[in-house]
Structures are given as structure tokens and as C-alpha cells.
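step=encode ok
step=design start
structure_in=
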């Protein structure tokens, strides 16, 4: 059984102004030239403080710093009962990930598909909040340990088969981002994964965060199935995952690192060379995050870029000796 964690709970969309949760960890990404000290000063938040009620106000303050093009805050639950605050920066001249222009079609999903997804999301949020967060992706799609969530996912298998054509059409052509996001999620349950893999790869450049996130989650499960059963002829390309490591959006980086930690297990020299060339600085900063669960996928990739055996990478992680592995990867790069 391949066990992963279900979606993290993003806190900003559900913050109550009266009782915002407190910050346990602040992690940064995108800093190359601008100092963390400058960002922290504009942030006006430190560990132990409540989360801001308005993240847009904080982002605007950070974007006034010289050299900063864009800022993005994301709060994720949880570390010892406190929020993890990720602060993303896009500096002037830094690598930039471009999104596709949103489509403008009027196509829409069948009502039963939308209703099933809405039910799923409510049950998923409940499961995550009580810590019932494991899933099995060994069959190429998520099946939750939580029985209620899994019950809806079993219906997804039927709906994806019945409505595959509509799902693919909506994913590429619907104007509504939420419709495209639901389509991306349901296509992960399609009976013939190879037939919809290109649609999901296409969706990784969608302008909507939710569409990209759902497409990446589906492709992570596809990649696991492809590794376990090569005769299916299913292939997941690492290219867009690598490029998304430079995105200012935290979910892009988080899901890309998770995907690439699996896609680099065979240490394909071409994939590793592409990672060194396009994303090593991003991987290094992620591998240094204080939020260990989110740092681990990037750290594993950095260790492989350093040419270390898996046992040595795991040993360094267990000992807390991340900097030695990072130093070797950076030395090999030079």
C-alpha cells in the first residue's frame, strides 16, 4: 500500500476575524537578493503572533520593497496546533512560471459530478481536521482511509468513466475555474489513465490554483501506478513539475516537490540535469524549511542531486544534518 497525506488545510480562506490562529513557523521561498530581514520587517508578524486577518494587506506591504515584484502568503494547518505561514517572493529578474490564458467556453459539468465533489470536499475537511489523513494511491488514484471520504471516491470511479468526455472538455474549455478544478480532480479517477494524462499535464499551466493543484495530485498518483505497472504504458513527464518549483504559489511548489521526489527515485540523469539547471536554488530553500513535513520531499531530491545513496540521505535527515547534504549538492553544481 502506498500511503500519502491528504490535502493540507489552507487557513486563510476560512479565517474568523475574531480568533485567527497563531503562527508556529514562518518559512520563506524566492529570496535570492532581498534579505529575509527586510521581508520580516514588512511582514510585521513573528512566530507566536496571530495570523493577519487580511493577507492582501501584508502582501501589498512586502511588494513595496525594492526588488520585489510579487508577494504571496499561504497559511497551512498545522504545527503543534499552530499555523505554518509560507511567505513567497518573486524578485525582479527571477525565474517566473507563466500560466495559460483562461478559457472562455460555456461548457459545464453534469450536476451529479459537482454534487459528488461538494460532498467529498466537506467530508475531506472533516477528516483532515480530526487527523484522519492517510490515503492509498497504489492504483493510480486516491483512496482515503476514512470510510466516508472513500465512499465518495468510489463513486468518482463510476462518474469519471460515465462522463470522461465531458470532464476533458470542461478541463480545457470551461470559463469557470471551479468547474475546471473539479474536472481535473475527477479525471484522476478515469479508468484508462494513459488516455487523460495529457489533459492533466495541460492543466498544470492553468491560471487557476485549484486546477493546477488537482491536476498535480492526480498525476502524482499516475506516476506511482506507472512505476508499479510499466506495462500500462503510462508516463508522467517531469518537465512542468520542475518549472513549477519556481512558482510564487506555495501549492505549486509543494505538489511539484512531492511529485518529483517520486519521479527522481530512478535517478534518470536527464531529469537530474534538468533539475540542477532549472530549479536547484528553489529546491535548496525548500529543503531548509523549518516545517519538516514540507521540507522532506525537496531534501530527498537535493540528496539525489548530490549523488548520495538513499540510506545516506535518510541518515542525514534523521540526524538533522541537512546542511552537509545541501553543501554537497551546491558544490557539485559549481
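sequence_out=
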Amino acid at each position: 500500500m502506498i500511503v500519502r497525506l491528504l490535502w493540507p488545510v489552507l487557513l486563510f480562506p476560512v479565517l474568523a476575524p475574531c480568533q485567527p490562529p497563531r503562527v508556529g513557523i514562518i518559512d520563506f521561498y524566492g529570496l535570492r537578493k532581498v534579505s529575509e530581514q527586510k521581508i520580516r520587517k514588512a511582514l510585521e508578524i513573528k512566530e507566536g503572533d496571530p495570523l493577519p486577518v487580511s493577507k492582501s494587506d501584508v502582501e501589498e506591504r512586502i511588494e513595496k520593497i525594492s526588488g520585489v515584484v510579487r508577494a504571496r502568503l499561504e497559511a497551512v494547518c498545522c504545527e503543534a496546533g499552530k499555523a505554518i505561514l509560507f511567505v513567497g517572493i518573486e524578485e525582479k529578474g527571477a525565474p517566473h512560471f507563466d500560466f495559460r490564458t483562461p478559457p472562455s467556453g460555456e461548457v459545464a459539468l453534469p450536476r451529479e459530478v459537482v454534487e459528488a465533489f461538494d460532498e467529498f470536499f466537506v467530508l475531506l475537511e472533516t477528516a483532515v481536521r480530526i487527523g484522519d489523513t492517510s490515503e492509498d494511491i497504489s492504483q493510480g488514484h486516491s483512496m482515503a482511509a476514512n470510510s466516508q471520504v472513500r465512499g465518495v471516491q468510489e463513486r468518482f470511479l463510476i462518474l469519471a468513466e460515465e462522463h470522461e468526455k465531458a470532464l476533458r472538455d470542461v478541463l480545457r474549455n470551461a470559463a469557470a475555474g471551479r468547474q475546471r478544478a473539479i474536472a481535473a480532480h475527477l479525471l484522476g479517477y478515469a479508468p484508462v489513465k494513459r488516455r487523460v494524462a495529457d489533459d492533466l499535464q495541460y492543466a498544470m499551466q492553468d491560471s487557476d490554483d485549484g486546477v493546477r493543484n488537482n491536476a498535480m495530485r492526480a498525476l502524482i498518483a499516475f506516476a506511482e501506478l506507472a512505476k508499479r505497472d510499466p506495462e500500462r504504458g503510462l508516463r508522467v513527464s517531469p518537465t512542468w513539475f520542475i518549472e513549477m518549483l519556481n512558482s510564487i504559489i506555495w501549492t505549486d511548489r509543494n505538489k511539484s516537490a512531492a511529485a518529483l521526489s517520486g519521479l527522481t527515485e530512478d535517478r534518470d540523469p536527464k531529469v537530474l540535469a534538468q533539475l540542477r539547471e532549472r530549479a536547484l536554488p528553489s529546491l535548496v530553500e525548500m529543503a531548509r524549511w523549518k516545517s519538516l513535513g514540507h521540507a522532506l520531499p525537496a531534501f530527498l531530491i537535493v540528496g539525489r542531486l548530490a549523488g548520495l545513496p538513499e540510506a545516506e540521505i535518510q541518515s542525514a535527515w534523521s540526524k538533522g544534518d541537512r546542511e552537509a547534504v545541501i553543501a554537497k549538492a551546491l558544490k557539485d553544481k559549481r
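step=design ok
step=annotate ok -> The beta strands are 3-5, 9-10, 23-29, 68-79, 82-91, 134-136, 143-144.
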